[in-house]
Structure prediction request, 307 residues.
Amino acid sequence: MCAICGCGTASGETNQPHSHGHEHHEHEHDHHHPHGSIDSGARLAGVHLPGISEERIVRVERDILSKNNSFAGANRSRLTKAGVLALNLVSSPGSGKTSLLVQTIADLQSRFPIAVIEGDQQTSNDADRIRATGAPAVQINTGRGCHLDAHMVGHALDQLPLAPAACSSSRMSATLSALPRSISGRRTRWWCCR
Amino acid sequence: MHEMSIAESLVDLIEDEARSRGFQRVKQIGVKIGALGHVEPDALRFCFDAVSHGTIAEGAHLHLEIVAGKGWCSRCAQAVPIAERYDLCPQCGQTHVKLIAGDELRLADLEVE
Prediction:
């Protein structure tokens, strides 16, 4: 069906060749209805315009990070169900994220089980520092980029013991964030308390 | 350089649209980027050219529309322009300005064949 003239609507979709007598089709472009199918499905807007016989403008309006957001949502729900509080530490390289974690784990691990996901371009040095405290740590190496996305975090969670909170930590069983809305190019540490 | 992964997501989205809507070639791509969204337009162009190579989006022209920052001031009860996140309301100086535009990263439309 042509959305402008509506040809093809009367008496069912015309599957027969037909000519157009009405005015706006008296232009030069080839007017091929793919008869046997509904034209508006083949041409998105269902519109034939002079000079725009093949190109189509497609309205999409989709969030470019929508796929990442769905992974992030799955991470959040997984953490919430497991009764895990997840904190995301993001700051410049060398500013002390791992040092802060090492000291915090030393102070708190007798009260809460704590696990860490480390994100770095290369090496497992930071995860090794965390493991030296006795806490489990997973290292994500992002390689050539410094990008760390929700999908990677999901795989890292697979490797961590996410059991429901057993004691006093249950009061803290809320998930703050599974990934910041705008992905940062900075380095990231994930810190999970069970 | 998070623009690389954003460019990859953009190409994924276009290929997804091509599958569901049945087009073979993309000529122009319209993307809306919030001015406060931490995406560098030049870096995104550079990455898109690299990432789109060999895909349905190869050679397509990338139009980047920058969406200015806008906040809602609850005291003035109106939308006000803002240049940075957490800006004060430029009219009343109140802190409570809620970001309502300028954070988007959206594939708006495509010209396809």
